[in-house]
Design a protein that fits this description.
This protein is of the alpha/beta class and about 375 residues long. It has a domain at about 5-170 and about 260-300: Bacterial extracellular solute-binding protein, family 7 (D-Maltodextrin-Binding Protein, domain 2), CATH 3.40.190.170. The chain has helices at about 5-35, 60-75, 95-100, 135-140, 145-155, 195-205, 215-225, 235-240, 265-270, 275-310, 320-335, 340-365, 370-375, and strands at about 45-50, 80-85, 105-110, 160-170, 175, 190-195, 210, 230, 250, 260-265, 315. The strands form 2 sheets. The protein has a 6-stranded mixed beta sheet with strand order 7-6-8-5-9-11, covered by helices on one side. Helix 2 packs antiparallel against helix 10 (about 275-310) and helix 4 (about 135-140) crosses helix 5. The longest helix is centred in the last third of the chain and has 36 residues, at about 275-310. The N and C termini lie far apart (about 50 Å). Residues about 1-40 have low confidence and may be disordered.
């Protein structure tokens, strides 16, 4: 942060502290003078929070589940001014805006500030070690990930932020193509949209990659800037209008297999809050994570059925040839990324966690596909 920004932020913090303390002191004086109740209502703290999502995207609904819980759990002491991408800054700029105090908080994903450090992608869209998003969210909170995230954001990059992770996302589909892609060789030459380390991965597999925020994907497809893309899930894809520009939808991929939302807070804003309000902002992430998961299961499933049954889209499972090629590409990328000491430390931590936790998960998990096929024969595209 610049010296000017530091002074402005410090002034803002001082004003907030003064207003809060002044309101309480004034209430006490008024209560004494008028023999009114000793505690008077305090004006709510308004937290300006911008997302990285268009106003119509389902992820705005997920963000509202968080902000609604914060307001309810704080008894109205915090009110959230929730804004879509572009309201204050562009989708990829929310980290900078939170750091600078332009906004108080953001709802985004770490890969959107990948331009500051490729290590950002390791906290959401890194190598697939054999665990799912639940496994990796466990790594963040119980396997040392949160400390490494703090080291990256605060110690290495000097960012004035706190960040928490929530909502372990289902693995992202490989995405939308105008024709079929059945082998890794079929991918050569595609102009494809993805973000973060997935861009490095798929470029190494012969694709030309553009990193675009969600709201720009379909217009880029219509202009021919890209001719294939992924975003994240059936609901977002449907709301973007993906079925209008491509008719082949590929589920299952290793390019982004374990992402979670990032809940960002300006450190000065957060530190200036009462401790119980800090706890609410932090632990409401966990509450929203459960709620987001339930809503996602309902809406993603409903929208996939609509995409497949009503809109003329053919839904495929990505071929084993492509999946195997993705793993080989990850091998080469991991070796390259490991030349950076911090990235090597993060990946070593993740591998150790997955080797232990993934063993339990995979050994203990029954074959759910076998059970599904038993009760709904012929539905799965195996």
């Amino acid at each position: 942060m610049t010296s000017k920004n530091q002074k402005e932020t410090a002034a803002a913090v001082t004003r907030r502290s003064f207003l809060r303390k002044g309101a309480l002191a004034g209430g006490a004086v008024a209560g004494t003078a008028l023999a009114a109740p000793a505690v008077l209502a305090q004006a709510p703290i308004v937290m300006k929070m911008q997302t990285s999502w268009p106003a119509s995207d389902i992820w705005m609904d997920f963000a509202r589940e968080y902000t609604g819980r914060v307001e309810a759990m704080s008894g109205g002491r915090i009110k959230v001014d929730l804004l879509p991408a572009g309201a204050v800054v562009a989708a990829f700029q929310v980290m900078d805006a939170t750091n600078d105090g332009v906004i108080d908080a953001a709802h985004s994903v770490p890969v959107y500030w990948y331009g500051k450090s490729k290590a950002a992608s390791l906290f959401g869209t890194g190598p697939v070690w054999g665990g799912n998003a639940n496994t990796m969210l466990g790594w963040f909170y119980q396997g040392g990930g949160a400390d490494l995230y703090r080291e990256l954001t605060q110690d290495i990059l000097g960012l004035n932020v706190y960040g928490f992770m929530g909502f372990p996302m289902p693995a992202q589909p490989f995405g939308w193509f105008k024709g079929e892609v059945n082998t890794a060789a079929d991918l050569n030459g595609f102009k494809y949209r993805t973000v973060g380390l997935a861009a490095d991965l798929l470029q190494s597999m012969g694709m030309s990659v553009a990193q675009l925020p969600g709201g720009e994907i379909v217009p880029a497809m219509e202009r021919g800037v890209i001719d294939a893309f992924e975003f994240n899930n059936p609901s977002s894809d449907l709301r973007f209008g993906a079925p209008d520009v491509a008719k082949n939808y590929y589920l299952s991929s290793y390019h982004q297999a374990s992402e979670s939302f990032e809940f960002l807070f300006n450190k000065d804003f957060f530190d200036d809050l009462d401790e119980d309000l800090q706890a609410i902002l932090k632990y409401a992430v966990e509450a929203a994570s459960t709620s987001n998961t339930a809503l996602a299961m309902r809406e993603y499933s409903n929208d996939l059925a609509k995409i497949e049954n009503e809109l003329g889209v053919t839904v495929h499972r990505t071929s084993k040839d492509i999946l195997a090629a993705q793993l080989k590409a990850w091998d080469a990328l991991i070796e390259e990324l490991g030349k950076d000491a911090f990235m090597a430390k993060v990946m070593d931590s993740q591998r150790a966690w997955i080797e232990k936790v993934g063993y339990y998960e995979l050994m203990n998990s029954p074959d759910l596909g076998l059970a599904y096929d038993h009760y709904f024969p012929g539905r799965l595209k195996l």
